[in-house]
Amino acid sequence: MLIIFRKERCDRDKCQERGTHSQPATHPPTQDCVFIIHKENTKKKTEGVVLVTELMCLTAGLLESSMRLKPHEAQSYRKKALWVSWISIVVTLILAVAAFTVSFMRHSASAFGFAFDATLDVLSSVIVLWRYSNAAAVHSAHREYIACVVLGIVFVLSSICILGKAIHDLATKMPPEVDDFLFSVSIVSGFTCAVLAVAKFMLGRVLTSRALITDGFNSMVGAIMGFSILISAEVFKHHADVWFLDGTIGVLIGLIIMAYGIKLLRDMVPRVRQTRNYERFE
């Protein structure tokens, strides 16, 4: 006997129309139907396949990972996501303090942009911690969408600050100062954020989590900004007339973060509204 689960939105009328042995619907019209199909193959080929369909209206609001992962696998990946988030918070917080110091001491727009992005990475990792703090809500779509909306708001606000700093430095023709400390921060931050980004992307793909993938995107941007500090500083050392490269990179990064934040809000706000009445299985 093969049991196949199929989920789709339906109201009371649709629930009654499907199948041959439907029970009277007693749930609200906005609930979901889970169709359990019992499929039996007879011994004789000529008899074909007998299908008996039963309808059950159950609450939905689950991510795709709920159909892919076994319970113990989901909990294992959830714990890994929590560990990666904690490591990301500690590491990026240290890098943020160092980058802010470099930015104000050396007048580097890219360093300021990276420091702000590192701060954003800390906030996004905190949001991911909240997202997976409840073991029972590992597959909760509503909780996932709320986390993504908060991330989108933080992205937009941070991009405004990054753009403001970069545009100010371009308007005042502020050249960055180059020293060994700047190189050290950029190299460490670039490689560290790259490793964190890969880990977050892998976990986000397995758990089908847009919040984790967004957190990984932010770490990837941090890696790019870390290496951009190194590149712009090296270019300025040999070509002082290219003083605007640092500020230009800051503007580009700010625009990328803003565009991603806006897209995230446009995608997730409607989904939060659609799932707000769903049971969260928490």
From TrEMBL:
Belongs to the TMEM163 family. The keyword Oxidoreductase does not apply. Coiled coil: none annotated. This is Transmembrane protein 163a. It is found in: Cytoplasmic vesicle, Secretory vesicle, Synaptic vesicle membrane; Early endosome membrane. GO terms for cellular component: early endosome membrane; synaptic vesicle membrane. Keywords: Cytoplasmic vesicle, Endosome, Membrane, Synapse, Transmembrane, Transmembrane helix, Zinc. GO terms for molecular function: zinc ion binding. The chain crosses the membrane at residues 81-105, 111-133, 145-166, 181-203, 215-236, 242-262. It comes from Seriola dumerili. It comes from the Eukaryota. Its main location: membrane. InterPro entries: Cation_efflux_TMD_sf, Tmem163. It is a multi-pass membrane protein.
